[in-house]
Specification:
By secondary structure, this protein is of the alpha/beta class. 50% of the residues lie in helices and 13% in strands. It is globular, with a radius of gyration of 15 Å.
């Protein structure tokens, strides 16, 4: 049986670096689908990116996240997710998009291990890149909406301390594996 562990929070808080470290330790991990969608759309000249068509971007993220879950459904063990379905719900709320019932149903049906690990905003490590165009203030707002979204679906949140990557990974692993 798969034990899905989700790491969430605002952009630029260090989730991906921790997921990469956990993957290096030999655990199965799923990358953040938002980045994948943006990279694919930019490469193809598509408009399903957050700065052009937020609804199309959200819908592509939903499809990609559901594909992630299908790929690991038969995995026996722990799988770490860099964001999850509830993040897509949170994104919809953050951007004022209509939330389709299919998204709510997906969030209710695909449950993650409780607790969910929440990465707080951390200005000292926050940077922008080709896919991350948000300001730090937008990162804080995203963090806040993710807290609300996961609580809405009944999850307990554990805040990951601001610390070096390996310490953050140990913090998470100590609570779910060891």
């Amino acid at each position: 049986m798969t034990t899905p562990i989700v790491l969430t929070g605002g952009p630029g808080a260090g989730k991906t670096a921790v997921i990469e470290h956990i993957a290096h330790l030999g655990f199965r991990c799923c990358e953040e689908v938002g980045r994948q969608v943006i990279q694919s759309q930019v490469e193809q000249g598509g408009k399903a990116v957050p700065w052009q068509d937020k609804t199309a971007f959200r819908d592509r993220m939903l499809s990609a996240e559901q594909a992630n879950h299908a790929r690991v459904a038969d995995h026996k063990g722990t799988v770490f997710f860099d964001r999850g379905l509830v993040d897509i719900y949170g994104y919809s709320r953050l951007e004022g998009l209509m939330v389709p019932s299919s998204l709510v149903q997906a969030c209710e049906a695909q449950r993650y291990h409780d607790p969910v690990f929440l990465f707080p905003p951390w200005e000292a490590i926050f940077t922008n890149d080709k896919e991350r165009k948000q300001s730090f203030a937008e990162a804080v707002a995203t963090f806040e909406i993710m807290q609300t979204a996961y609580r809405h679906f009944g999850y307990t949140l554990v805040e990951v301390p601001r610390a070096p990557v390996h310490i953050r990974a140990e913090f998470i692993l100590d609570r779910v594996i060891r």
